[in-house]
Task: inverse folding
């Protein structure tokens, strides 16, 4: 009588597994061929208004942004440990400079007025001449610019690493701790977090008719009918195109002189057509960021409105219209971290 | 050792199958996630370009009042190009080089488009402002001029300019352009009149806006034309074609590899299954043969047991029957000897002889019975063997008939006939048991005076004995058990007998290769036909040969 071995059941299971695996694999590859072709459609939901409200929330990494905020005020970011970003972008002044030309120790005065850092993520190109395509290229250039930070990511990182709290904070936020690339990422996330939603006028655009005064509404009507919104439009109310300063009247003839900085975009493109052309600035929080224009020549909002009407639109504003426009512009001051600026 | 080797081989097959399937899945997984994202991005280049163009046209015709959509469309295109630079690995290195070269061309076009859009925004914003404001301003100045007594010429000049501008806005050819210029000249000539009307500033503004329209509209239109004619969609199409070509060849390659792997996997699966099936079949066969053997053994055991049981039963019956059958003659012997002992002196000789005769007869009957039992016992023990010898069958039968007729006191007559060659080779003793028993039965169970036929035919190869009586016959139900020891037919109770005669016949015939047939009709008599081989020595040796 031959020996009877109990191997049948094991072989059976293996065979079943084998067949099952084949089936699953075949089914799986069938399944994987299907995919989701839908993509989000970007559309304005606020009718045919030239201005759109800022989004109430934006995506950024809060831990990195908090770290970036500290770095923003940190002189060790500069090569000589003397200059911080906040020296030109004052926290108490809408992250802009209250002087026409920024003046910090050991550097020549800035050629142009320092604009606000709020809502930079919505700007199309950065700097008055639109030299930088992105926040990344902008901050990279400023870090090494001898007239600005006169530093480098490596140098800044080295100087930061002397401070224990930075080492700790970076270690808690980034797996690889304090590195040049992480310093950069932290700053960038802070810049992206600088959004000021919920301005009274945004509330009005979102449907709250009581959010602004009748004067502001009249000012908005003026803003459109005078033609301001030809250039100052979009979510940032500007910041998405370039325009020559002095379309209808000569700005520099009245000022009496012009220098290299006044060439604006020409300094970037070297094209004749770009002489005296500047990025149309965003009007978000404009009430906080005096003085105005690339040269800081307009000390007040009223002066800036008057000048714009004069040089860009060829108009002399009646006082009534001007105050309405200024009221409208003041309604563009938003909230940062839930607090009105 | 053999078992572990086969197990190892089947395990190896299974492992090989799994490796094939894993490789199959790996080849599979290279494809889709990447491929879909990439081809979707490729398609979106065309879509985003079309969207950008549409938005430019909308801006140009003032249907869109902000430039964010333009910025977003361009940003999307740039991001798409960045993403497309990451060519999926499965396409291969040469495809990546080709696609990146195409992408570079496409990016150059995108940069051109970007610059054009940049320019467009700058001009279009100013143009749209003038187009919007010029008619409002001009009409308000006309209204103010008309109310003054000397304002009519100024108003009509402005009117002319409005008409010229309107025409220019729709056609923008050289003629309408010249017309605007003429109207501007005419209006400029009215500066003095305007000054008198205190409208000189407004006049300047009207002229400035008309100049902006005259200057910028052709520029804006030209830029729009240029934007629309940037061959970005064609680039995107070419890119998509190149991609689909590379993709096809890559998927063909992958498909081939997959097919090979699938084939291998299938082969291993089939091999594995075959192995399993064969193993199962072998095991099933082993099981079957084991079961059959077991069954046979069981059957043999059962047979053995049955035989034992029958034997035991037989023995029990034998003992009970013999004790019963022996008791009768023994009691006769005992009682006769007792009587003889007590009364022999008083009895006459005749009476004494009678009892002595009874004792002898009883002893003889016991002797016969013992003979029968011995024959049956030897037959059942397999020790009954015929010893054939030359024999004259005719004489043998005649002696037998005579002795039986004699012992039955001639109350019956036996009609005996014989035909054929009487010289046979048979066992005389066994044959006399067979024929004697049959004949004595025939006599015993037949009424006195009836005839018994006894016909013997000796053929070339066998002898046939036929015994036929006119007796009580045998019930049909009893015939199957007729040849069992101690069995007696249900209608034979009145007639003395041991029930061993026919059993002896059967046993004696069995060892001589003989047969017996019974035909009986209840009350009319029975017929027994016996056949035995003529020469027992020949048939025995031939049987042995078989």
Result:
């Amino acid at each position: 009588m031959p020996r009877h071995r109990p191997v049948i059941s094991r072989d059976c299971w293996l065979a079943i597994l084998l067949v099952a695996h084949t089936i699953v694999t075949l089914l799986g590859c069938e399944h994987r061929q299907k995919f989701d072709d839908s993509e989000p459609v970007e559309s304005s939901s606020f009718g045919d208004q030239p201005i759109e409200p800022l989004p109430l929330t934006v995506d950024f990494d809060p831990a990195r942004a908090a770290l970036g905020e500290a770095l923003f005020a940190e002189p060790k970011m500069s090569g000589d440990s003397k200059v911080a970003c906040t020296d030109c972008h004052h926290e108490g002044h809408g992250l802009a400079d209250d002087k026409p030309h920024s003046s910090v120790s050991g550097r020549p005065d800035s050629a142009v007025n320092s604009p606000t850092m709020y809502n930079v993520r919505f700007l199309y190109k950065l700097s008055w001449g639109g030299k930088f395509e992105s926040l990344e290229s902008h901050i990279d250039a400023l870090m090494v610019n001898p007239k600005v930070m006169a530093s480098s990511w490596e140098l800044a990182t080295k100087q930061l690493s002397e401070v224990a709290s930075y080492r700790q904070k970076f270690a808690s936020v980034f797996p690889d701790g304090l590195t040049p690339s992480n310093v950069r990422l932290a700053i960038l996330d802070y810049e992206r977090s600088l959004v000021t939603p919920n301005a009274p006028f945004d509330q009005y655009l979102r449907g709250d008719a009581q959010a602004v005064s009748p004067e502001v509404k009249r000012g908005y009507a003026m803003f459109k009918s005078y033609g301001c919104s030809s250039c100052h439009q979009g979510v940032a109310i500007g910041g998405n195109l370039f325009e020559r300063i002095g379309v209808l009247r000569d700005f520099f003839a009245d000022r009496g002189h012009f220098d290299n900085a006044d060439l604006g975009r020409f300094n970037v493109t070297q094209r004749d057509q770009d002489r005296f052309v500047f990025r149309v600035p965003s009007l978000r929080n404009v009430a906080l960021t005096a003085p105005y224009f690339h040269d800081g020549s307009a000390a007040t909002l009223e002066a800036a409105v008057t000048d714009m009407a004069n040089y860009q639109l060829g108009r002399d504003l009646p006082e009534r219209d001007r105050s309405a426009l200024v009221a409208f512009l003041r309604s563009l001051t938003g909230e940062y971290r839930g607090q009105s600026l | 050792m053999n078992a572990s080797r086969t197990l190892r081989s089947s395990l190896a097959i299974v492992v090989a199958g799994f490796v094939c399937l894993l490789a199959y899945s790996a080849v599979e997984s290279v494809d889709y996630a990447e491929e879909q994202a990439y081809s979707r991005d490729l398609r979106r280049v065309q879509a985003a370009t079309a969207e950008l163009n549409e938005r430019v046209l909308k801006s140009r015709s003032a249907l869109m009042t902000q430039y964010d959509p333009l910025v977003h469309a361009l940003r999307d295109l740039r991001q798409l190009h960045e993403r497309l630079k990451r060519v999926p690995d499965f396409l291969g290195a040469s495809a990546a080089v080709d696609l990146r070269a195409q992408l570079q061309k496409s990016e150059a076009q995108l940069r051109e488009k970007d610059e054009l859009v940049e320019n467009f925004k700058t001009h279009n914003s100013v143009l749209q402002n003038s187009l919007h404001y010029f008619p409002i301003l001009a009409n308000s100045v006309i209204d103010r001029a008309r109310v003054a007594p000397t304002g009519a010429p100024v108003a009509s000049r402005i009117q002319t300019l409005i008409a010229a501008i309107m025409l220019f806005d729709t056609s923008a050819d050289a003629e309408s352009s010249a017309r605007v210029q003429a109207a501007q000249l005419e209006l400029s000539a009215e500066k003095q009149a305007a000054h008198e009307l205190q409208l000189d500033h407004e006049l300047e503004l009207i002229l400035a806006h008309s100049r902006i329209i005259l200057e910028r509209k052709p520029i804006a239109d030209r830029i729009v034309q240029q934007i629309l004619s940037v061959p970005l969609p064609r680039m995107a199409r070419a890119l998509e074609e190149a991609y689909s070509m590379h993709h096809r060849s890559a998927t063909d390659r992958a498909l081939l590899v997959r097919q090979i792997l699938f084939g291998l996997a299938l082969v291993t699966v089939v091999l594995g299954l075959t192995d399993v099936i064969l193993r199962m079949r072998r095991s099933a066969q082993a099981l079957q043969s084991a079961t059959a053997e077991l069954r046979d053994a069981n059957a043999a055991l059962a047979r053995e047991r049955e035989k034992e049981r029958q034997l035991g039963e037989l023995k029990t019956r034998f003992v009970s029957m013999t004790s019963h059958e022996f008791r009768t003659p023994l009691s006769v012997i005992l009682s006769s000897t007792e009587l003889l002992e007590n009364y022999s002196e008083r009895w006459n000789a005749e009476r004494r002889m009678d009892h002595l005769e009874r004792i002898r007869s009883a002893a003889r009957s016991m002797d016969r019975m013992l003979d029968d039992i011995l024959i049956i016992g030897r037959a059942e023990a397999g020790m009954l063997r015929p010893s054939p010898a030359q024999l004259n069958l005719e004489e043998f039968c005649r002696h037998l008939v005579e002795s039986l007729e004699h012992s039955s006191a001639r109350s019956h007559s036996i009609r005996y006939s014989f035909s054929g060659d009487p010289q046979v080779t048979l066992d005389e003793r066994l044959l006399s048991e067979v024929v004697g028993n049959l004949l004595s039965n025939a006599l015993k169970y037949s009424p006195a005076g009836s005839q018994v036929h006894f016909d013997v035919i000796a053929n070339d190869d066998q002898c046939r004995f036929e015994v036929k009586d006119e007796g009580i016959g045998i019930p049909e139900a009893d015939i199957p058990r007729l040849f069992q020891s101690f069995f007696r037919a249900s209608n034979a109770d009145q007639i003395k007998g041991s029930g061993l005669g026919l059993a002896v016949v059967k046993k004696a015939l069995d060892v001589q290769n003989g047969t017996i047939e019974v035909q009986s009709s209840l009350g009319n008599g029975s017929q027994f036909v016996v056949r035995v081989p003529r020469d027992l020595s020949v048939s025995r040796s031939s049987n042995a040969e078989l």
Chain A has two domains: 62-193, 200-340. Residues 62-193 of chain A form a domain with the Cytochrome Bc1 Complex; Chain D, domain 2 fold (CATH 1.10.760.10).
